[in-house]
Amino acid sequence: MKIQPLGDRVLVEPMKDDEQKKGGIIIPDTAKEKPQKGKVIALGTGRIDDDGKKVPFNVKKNDVVLMPKYGGTEIKIEGKEYQIMREEDILAVID
Amino acid sequence: MKIQPLGDRVLVEPMKDDEQKKGGIIIPDTAKEKPQKGKVIALGTGRIDDDGKKVPFNVKKNDVVLMPKYGGTEIKIEGKEYQIMREEDILAVID
Amino acid sequence: MKIQPLGDRVLVEPMKDDEQKKGGIIIPDTAKEKPQKGKVIALGTGRIDDDGKKVPFNVKKNDVVLMPKYGGTEIKIEGKEYQIMREEDILAVID
Amino acid sequence: MKIQPLGDRVLVEPMKDDEQKKGGIIIPDTAKEKPQKGKVIALGTGRIDDDGKKVPFNVKKNDVVLMPKYGGTEIKIEGKEYQIMREEDILAVID
Amino acid sequence: MKIQPLGDRVLVEPMKDDEQKKGGIIIPDTAKEKPQKGKVIALGTGRIDDDGKKVPFNVKKNDVVLMPKYGGTEIKIEGKEYQIMREEDILAVID
Amino acid sequence: MKIQPLGDRVLVEPMKDDEQKKGGIIIPDTAKEKPQKGKVIALGTGRIDDDGKKVPFNVKKNDVVLMPKYGGTEIKIEGKEYQIMREEDILAVID
Amino acid sequence: MKIQPLGDRVLVEPMKDDEQKKGGIIIPDTAKEKPQKGKVIALGTGRIDDDGKKVPFNVKKNDVVLMPKYGGTEIKIEGKEYQIMREEDILAVID
């Protein structure tokens, strides 16, 4: 089973943040708009710009990203949780 | 009887999700914006872009799609329920 | 007496849906945004796009259409009820 | 005394609808956004589009139009009531 | 002392309407968005359109205009009251 | 210490209005959107328009301007109060 | 570990303002939209304009900036607090 997101959406698998690990990213509980780590599983078909050209994605498959917790739509495939969200809403890529 | 959606709208027949089937997509009841599976029955006449050209659809007839539950307009034809919704609101195609 | 809608508006005569007829379109009472059947009586003068060209209509006179119930403005001409609404708000053409 | 509306505005004199006359337009009291008949008295200076060209009006002087009751600004000149409103808000021309 | 409005703003001096004078413009007290007469004292520096060109004003110095009462910003210069408002918000020129 | 505003922002030092001086600008206390006098201290880096060109400012350093009281962001540098605001929000230049 | 912000976002490390230091920037507690000092740690991948070209940033790495306190998203990396925010929301660069 394969999920092909449409337009500028991406399929992301949320990751547990290793808060215990030294140097990990800790998202403070008090943050107004709490972000979340995730792995990019699939890119969308791409957004078409005003000149009819496809806009390339800034993220790629397997990228670890920082995303707002409630910016996407939750689904569960074969027992795992995923989010479908617009690339525009992803905050950053983590190397 | 045939329904021809207008502009960038599509006619979709909602499908029951086989939650029991192994590997099926399960939409958690707690999801904020609960999505729903459906089959594309008819494409619209197409959206016209700023240059006067028709924008092609990313979905095609018989595609199984993931869509927000309350994103479209419900109608019933010959006893079956359908949704008319904008393609933009469809989240993903499922293979 | 003739009504010439302006811009991208159309004049539509609402139709009673033959819910009893087998195969008719039934609009469920529980639908969030309840649609309604109607017949196109007159097209508007047409919308002008950014390049100064008239955008053609996707509906034509006598088309039977599916429209949102409260998307237009109600008027009564010679005893009959009509709606003036934007074509953009019409959901579909029914053949 | 002459009123020259600015931009895409028009000066309209509201008319009493001859509801008694057979075949007249009757605006139902229950209508959500109640329209009103009026006569176009003066056209505005015209809207300038993105290419710097004037957009022609779809209505002309003396046209009888159907307009939303509270879409314009009321003024009284030499004892008569008028409305200044944008052409975009006029629903239709009545022949 | 000179006030040079910026962009598409104009400086207007509100005028008392000669309601007693025969043929004067009377603004009904019941009007939803009550307009007001005024004299144009100074034009702004002009709005720049998308092609980088200045958009000419439709009003000129000393024009008597009809304007919404609360559409601008009130200031007092040398004892007189003025309004600084966008030309777009001026309804009409009175000849 | 130097403050370089970004984009179409300007740094303005609010000035006390000499209400006592004959001919001064008096901002009535009853004004709905009370304006305020100020001196332009620094221009921003400039807004980039759709063609990639910098849009020139209509105000220059040391201009005395009229600005809405709550349109900007207050900061204090070396004991003096300043406002950082968008040029678009400045009402007029006072000569 | 490296954070690569996406699009027109930047990664900023908030700085304590040396309010005691003579000549420091003091943000009054009463300011409506309280700004905050910070150091730019990383620039985003850049915003793509309507012509498909990347828009350059006005800030650069290590710039000290003035930013609205609640304009971004808070994260904590290796024990330090950061903000991811759009460059558009940064008010000024401090030299």
Please give a structural write-up.
Seven copies of one chain form a homoheptamer. The first copy, chain A, is mainly beta and 95 residues long. Chain A has one domain: GroES chaperonin (10 Kd Chaperonin, Protein Cpn10, Chain O), CATH 2.30.33.40. Helices cover 0% and strands 46% of the residues of chain A. The first copy, chain A, is built from no helices and ten strands. In chain A, the strands form two sheets. A six-stranded antiparallel beta sheet of chain A has the order 8-9-2-4-7-10, with no helix packed on it. In chain A, strands 5-6 form a two-stranded antiparallel ribbon. In chain A, 28% of the residues are buried. Chains C and D meet through strand 1 and strand 8 of C and strand 3 and strand 10 of D.
Helix content of chain A: under 10%
Reported by name, the CATH topology of chain A is 10 Kd Chaperonin, Protein Cpn10, Chain O
The unreliable regions of chain A are none
Major β-sheet strand ordering of chain A:
8-9-2-4-7-10
Q: How many individual helices of chain A? A: 0
Head-to-tail CA distance between termini of chain A: 29 Å
Please name the CATH architecture of chain A.
Answer: Roll
Total strand count of chain A, please?
Answer: 10
Rg of chain A, Cα atoms, Å: 14 Å
Q: Assign the CATH superfamily of chain A.
A: GroES chaperonin
Q: Could you name the CATH class of chain A? A: Mainly Beta
Shape of chain A: globular
User: In percent terms, what proportion of residues of chain A is strand?
Assistant: over 45%
Biggest sheet details of chain A: 6 strands, antiparallel
**Biggest interface, residues from each chain:** C-D, 25 and 29 residues
Quickly count the domains of chain A: 1
Order of helices and strands of chain A: EEEEEEEEEE
* Quaternary class: homoheptamer
